[in-house]
Every structure is written in C-alpha cells, then in structure tokens.
Amino acid sequence: MAVYTEVTDDALAAFLERYEIGRVVAFRGIAEGVENSNYSLRTTEGDFILTLYEKRVDPVELPWFLGLMEHLAAQSLPCPLPVRAQDGANLNPLAGRIAAITTFLPGIWPRRPTAAHCGPLGAALARLHEAGTGYAAERANALGPHGWRPLLDRCGESADRVQPGWGVELAAALDRILAAWPEDLPRGQIHADLFPDNVFFLDGAISGLIDFYFAATDYFAYDIAVCLNAWCFEADLTFNITKSRALLRGYQSIRPLAATETAALPVLCQGAAIRFLLTRLYDWINTPDGALVTRKDPMPYYRRLRFHAQTRSASDYGL
Amino acid sequence: MAVYTEVTDDALAAFLERYEIGRVVAFRGIAEGVENSNYSLRTTEGDFILTLYEKRVDPVELPWFLGLMEHLAAQSLPCPLPVRAQDGANLNPLAGRIAAITTFLPGIWPRRPTAAHCGPLGAALARLHEAGTGYAAERANALGPHGWRPLLDRCGESADRVQPGWGVELAAALDRILAAWPEDLPRGQIHADLFPDNVFFLDGAISGLIDFYFAATDYFAYDIAVCLNAWCFEADLTFNITKSRALLRGYQSIRPLAATETAALPVLCQGAAIRFLLTRLYDWINTPDGALVTRKDPMPYYRRLRFHAQTRSASDYGL
C-alpha cells in the first residue's frame, strides 16, 4: 500500500551522495503508511527510513513537520530524527518527489491494543505535548473543527448514498458539536493521528512515535480525544473504559488535565469521531472503484460518534 | 501489495518461541512480492524475513521449495536459508497460514536493469542450475508447456475482449510453439521467475536470489529464456541484444550451453513469452474491478512473443 513512487538504483545513489550516511546495503519498500512512499534503507552506517512525499502532503508544509520532529527528538521523544544532508538540507528531490531520510526506530505497532498499551500511550502523548511547547511555529489544523463543515458540504448528497439519512443526521451532529466546542483550552503541538500503527512498542514500553504529517497546533485534549477513539474501542465497536482509564491516567501521570479539559472530553471525543468519519466518508465517495488504495469504512466512526453523543462527563471515560 | 495477512504481537511472540533466534526488535511489512505476505523481522540475533504463504501457494509443495532453498544455500548460492525451529521444522502455522522464517539478504533489486547487470545475472543463473543438480526431488512445472493450453482454454472467449483477435492468434501461436518444443534438453531445478525484483545487487555483484515459489524441474535453457524476456527488453519493448549477449556470455562462463540448447533459444523464448502472456491474461480476466492487487498488463508479453517469433537462431540473441 505504501510504495507509490519507484526509486531507481541510480537515482538513489545520486540522492545519497548528498548525505554522509555511507553506502547502501539494502533498500526495501515498506507496506505501511497510507499517505507517502516509505522505504527501509540500510547503509554501511546504520538503518534509516526514506520517505517520498506523495500528493496529499503540501510541500510547503514539510519544513514545519520536519522541524517539529527534529525539535521533539531533541527533547528525547522517541520520534524519527530527520537526517540532514551535507549542505544542511533535510528535504531533497528524488524521483520527482520531495524526500527525507529519518532515523530508524525499533519496535512493533500493536495490532490488537490492550489496556497494557494504553497507559504508556497516554504518558507518551503527554510527553509529546510537553516537548512541543518550545516549538514556536504554528500550523493550523486543517482537519480541525473549522474544516469539518466544508468537508461535509463537499460530500453533499453522496452521504445519503453511503448510508440513507446521513446527510441530515451528520449535519445536525456537526451543529451540536460545533455549538458546544470549547474555547481557550490549553493548546500546542499535537500529533492528531496517533493511531496504533503510528506507535511502536518494545518489551512493553514505547519505542517510537511516527507519522507526524497530520500534526498541527490545537487543543492538547483534542489529541487525547483522537487517541480515545483510536485505542479504546473493541473490534465490535464497544467502548472499553478500562483502556480509556489507563490512557487518561497515563497522560495525567505526566501532564495533569485542567478542569476545563476534562469537562470537554465528551464533545472533544465527538469531534474526533466526526473528523475521521468525514475524511473516510469523503474518501469513500471520491475513490474510484478500481483504485489501488484501501478505502476505510466510515461506519465504525459513526458508531463511535453515537457512543460519545450519549456520554455525560469525564467519568464516562473512567476519570 | 504484499501484506495480506496481519500478524498480531501475541501471535508473533508465540510463533517465535518455536525458534532460537532471540527476541523481536522490529517487524515491518514489506511492500514487495505479489504472492505472499512478507515481513522484515529484526531480532536481538539478526535480520530475517518472515513469509506467510497465501492462497496461490499449495502448502503440499512448500517442503519442496524450502528444501531447494536449503540445498542451494548449502552450495553457497546467495538465496534465503530457511531457519529451522527448535524441533527442526522449517514450516510452522501463524495467523491461519503456514509461515517460514528465512535469512535476510542484503542488496537492492535493479529498477532499471542495464547490460552491466545481465552478465552477473547470467552467471548466477548458471550457478543456480549447477547447484541444484544434487537436489533429487522433482517438481513438475505447472506453468510449463503442458500448462499453457489449459490456461488459454480457461481464458476462452474473454481473450478477444482484452484484445480483438487474440483468441485465434494465441491458439495458433501456441500450436506452433508446442509443435517446435524441443525434446531432451539438459534439465534440472530452475527458478522459472527470475525477474529483476527477485535479484539483489550490491556494489555491482549479485547479493541475493529470492522468491523460489515458481521453481520447478524443467529445461535449464527455458530458465534462460525467461530471463531473456524479463531482462533484455527496453521500456519501449524493443529487444536489447547487448543485454542478451551479456546474459548468455555470463551464463556460459559457468555452464557452456549444448548445441541443442542454443538451437532451441528462439522457440524457448516464445514459450517463456506466452507463459507470462497467458498468466497475465488469465489474471486480467479474472481479477474483479475493485480488487486490491495490481493487474499486470499482458500486452508487453504479446509484443515480446512477436519479437521472438521472427528470430531465426541464437545469433539473434547475440551468440
């Protein structure tokens, strides 16, 4: 799924001449990551990941993402460190794309997250939020609350073709969410997409946080809400409060939540659910039938949205 | 493209307990290989490839393939060595599939093969043929000449829907090829699918031959014909005799061809071309429109077939 751009040996060799990381020993496409092309690159000096940025990523935004990763890595967060070429550039052209080399992180992402994963995850998320405070440049969250209405509008009448009644129902849900959206919560750099496949574990501890290409400047507690959606529902889409409690406790062991943040959890979780519902719905409608990408079903996020719509307070999340 | 079966952390850990290769350090899906699911597996003891055999591979045939790889590796051929579990088994169940661990081979497969690749390739192919002689068990080549007529018959009238006239034309071509098919050429274990993505190079030398799951017992020179088709045509489908000459010279530097083999090259090359034409045609017809696999266009092999149909002797291949 994740090699859209082929790199010839000659092009790779020429690209690597810009860097001081030795000669190529192995180079294999990685079947993970949906947005970009990723290769596992081994050189005589170590292991790296080579990423070619595909069309969904705006090249203008790349320096912000790579700057954030560099900043977080410098704060000892286990995230990929962009490798700079001899001239200092961490972004260089390759095979008609912009490409970057980052350090390799050990670990495995959990295919079946358990409560034992959720505590370390929460703590790592809080560390990420704290580590990001010194990174001054801001990036508006294009997929935050201001982006949801335009996204639903662009789905238009097709929403009802995916699921009868969704057009009206999602518009009403969005009205309620945006009307209740909190103001002035603590904010900073958030990951905004910290799903299990972006978190590596080794011997029970977190060894890597990857894929910062949805990162933005937004409410910290919204990032928690994304994780509650991504980590705390079972395969049958029931909510697991044990996982949620572990995640929130792990988070607060590093960064205690303000009362305004805990109070906002139900609506933030609804917002996070509708964000993934809407992007999946949009992709579902706009992916041609024969396309070589996996369309993700929006329905599981509708089910999550319905769960969050009936929660009353942070206690429903185990706090 | 190449992760069809997901492996949970728990299942992987339980599977690895059968082996003595240390603890997992990293585990990533590889976006290469069309038939099976492949993972890059790093443990505290080294690097390995984990393969889960998908539906196209008959489990009954796996011991033959793995036995061949073990035999070839013991002859110092740079092919993956299946790792045996503590009980001696090199095939074990994982995630509802049969799986094997093999050693990791360094190198990069050439995205744009040049004549400089073709000499070492030819020599490696000859070494493979010689190394296989001590492996006594035979495997009939299901995709050899006896398999082509049934394959075309199963395409039936759909061939004409892919390309008008193909039904009659391919049947006639197949008649000619089978009528001229040589008897009693030197035979043994052949790779039968040695395309560029199955051959790793490092510093100009071959560092790995992989993917033996089409290997069979058949004419050595037919294996050469497969390589001439796979390596010696340009992107515009013109034949490059410089590459062909390099490949044949490389081969003969290890194993000189008999006169019967060189005389048969034109028809063997036609056979190899129609073999890939027919499997691609069959897959083209039988792949549902929305399927998540890349359908390979049969047309380039029709073009190759037409080239080979007008060659007269081995001199047309640079000998």
Automatic annotation (TrEMBL), chains A, B:
Aminoglycoside phosphotransferase domain spans which residues?
Answer: 27-257
* Enzyme class label: transferase
Entry EC number(s): 2.7.1.39
Q: What is a biological process (GO) this protein takes part in? A: threonine biosynthetic process
Source organism's superkingdom?
A: Bacteria
Asked whether the UniProt record includes ATP-binding among its keywords, one would answer yes
Cite the annotated pathway. Answer: Amino-acid biosynthesis; L-threonine biosynthesis; L-threonine from L-aspartate: step 4/5
Q: Could you tell me what reaction this enzyme catalyses?
A: L-homoserine + ATP = O-phospho-L-homoserine + ADP + H(+)
User: Sorted alphabetically, which Pfam families does this protein's record hold?
Assistant: APH
Which Gene3D superfamilies does the UniProt record give?
A: 3.90.1200.10, Phosphorylase Kinase, domain 1
- Give any GO molecular function from the UniProt entry: ATP binding
Q: Which CDD domains match?
A: HomoserineK_II
Asked if the keyword Lipid metabolism belongs to this entry, the reply reads no
Q: Which UniProt keywords apply?
A: Amino-acid biosynthesis, ATP-binding, Kinase, Nucleotide-binding, Threonine biosynthesis, Transferase
List the InterPro entries hit by this protein, alphabetically: Aminoglycoside_PTrfase, Homoserine_kinase_II, Kinase-like_dom_sf, Pseudomonas-type_ThrB
By sequence similarity, the record places it as follows: Belongs to the pseudomonas-type ThrB family.
What this protein is called in its record is: Homoserine kinase
Give the source species.
Acidiphilium acidophilum (Thiobacillus acidophilus)
